[in-house]
Specification:
Elements: E1 3-7, H1 12-16, H2 19-28, E2 33-39, H3 43-47, E3 54-58, H4 63-79, E4 84-87, H5 92-100, E5 105-109, E6 120-122, H6 133-138, H7 165-178, E7 185-190, H8 202-215, E8 219-225, H9 230-243, E9 251-255, H10 259-268, E10 271-275, H11 278-284, E11 290-294, H12 299-302, E12 312-316, H13 336-339, H14 343-356
Parallel strand pairs: 1-2, 1-4, 2-3, 4-5, 5-6, 7-8, 7-10, 8-9, 10-11, 11-12
Helix pairs in contact: 7-10, 8-9, 8-14
Amino acid sequence: MMTILLVRPRLIGDVILTTPAIRALRRRFPDAKILYLVEALAAPVVAANPHVSDTLVIHHRRGWRRWREDLVLARRLRAAHVDVAVDLHGGPRSGWLTWATRAPVRVGYDVSGRRWMYTHRIPRPRGYAPRHSVLNQWDLLAPVDSALVEPLSPERDRVEMPSGREAREAVAARLAALGVGATDEVVVVHASAGNEFRRWPAASFAATIAALAADRADRWLIVLGNRVDEPVVSEIVGASRAAAPAAGRRVAPGVGWPLDQVRALMDRAALFIGGDSGPMHIAATTDVPIVALFGPTLPVHWTPWRPAGLPLAIVEGGPLPCRPCDQRVCEPGDFRCLTRIGSDQVVAAAQRLLERT
């Protein structure tokens, strides 16, 4: 029996975008043992994936703790007798762990200083070619089998993250505790971002939420964020309630929800609003209508990968000479790719999708 290892340490959205390849691999090798190496933060994305035989979880550590963990993991990978190891990340750590398997076939991007780690090297996309990230990662599977050169499509191989019964029950309990009725409409807003370059202003979120909350008396808005984003989420919720007093309690924070519950929440939602980050790609694993906000990144690379018939509205700041950027330095200094997106644009897009639904 063939053993295939996929290595994709981080991040949540990036891991989700590898799931079409997992499905295609399982279709091509129905009897193979498919292992997936992932960091703990994104592990829930693939832990219940029916096409993955086993999930290997590592932690985002630094210094000697990281080296100790990697050495232990290297011994475990060597003992697994991996036949094919595919590095879907391309970083130093993922490259070393791929090499440590000693698999006869080791695939990775052709990156200077790490070529020796792989038996098969794939040219890494340079610049901003108009091609989706799912397809760029798919290129890495070509050396595994010639039949895997067939193109992926979001209709047949969409992103996926199964939702479990316990998570659904936990979400139902959370919503009931807030006072959400069984027939009430729920709009999920993700107000966080991995970095400031993708963070739409809090005031814009608040204006959008207030307008949508005031529009219907049975509409609830759940504002998601990580624990570190709690001050921003509180600011947005407070400003929204002040702008729409009658909506008051129907705007609620959702801080620090486990990833599997975020996924289950999408099944209950009538709409998702958020930027190019993990929760947007989690929403893409469901049929929930999505309003996707794009600032420094481009939809052609990161748009939700799912069938074209599902409701989607993309809102962006328009063409700019500095867009897309490497998200290290804002050349104009004012994050205009985000600030040029008006709350009225997002409200209008949200209302159109809600009316269609």
